[in-house]
What we know:
With about 50 residues, the protein is an alpha+beta fold. The protein has 1 helix and 2 strands, in the order E-E-H. Helix content is about 15%, strand content about 10%. The protein starts with 8 loop residues before the first strand and ends in a 9-residue tail after the last helix. The protein has one domain. It has a two-stranded parallel sheet.
Amino acid sequence: MLMKNGAEVDVCAIYLPNRDFGQEALLDGVGVAAPGPIAELMRDPSVPVFTF
């Protein structure tokens, strides 16, 4: 639902290296967060970031 409404969805950068599968197992449109760019987004007060 979030993606259908325009949200960008990424999994944690350390999640996939610790699994037996890769990015090909993710839904289309789900990316892998990189530490630097996600840190910039999280510091921007105009960008809502949801984690769970």
